[in-house]
Amino acid sequence: MSKGGAVYIMSCPDKTTLYVGVTADLFNRVIQHKEKFHPASFTAKYNCSLLVYYKWFEGIEEAIAEEKRIKGGSRKKKVQLIEASNAGWKDLFDSIDPLY
Q1: pLDDT score of 1
Q2: Which of the 8 DSSP states describes residue 41?
């Protein structure tokens, strides 16, 4: 049986930079981004600290496939994806169930 996962998009506060990722532990992964756990990482360098989009998948393989699809799209498509569910680009971190 495969473990589930999530694909997510982080943004910097001024919305100029987006980061697309995938993880089996969204809650802790977002904390790592926010706390700049990896100081040399892309998200730390560009201050991508706002979780503006995420979607859960039953299997991590599905999440990885969706991450690749999103990464392969244009910025315009990423913005459309975010705004379809989060028009105000609010930080969605508090909506994550840490036990999921």
Answers
A1: 43
A2: S
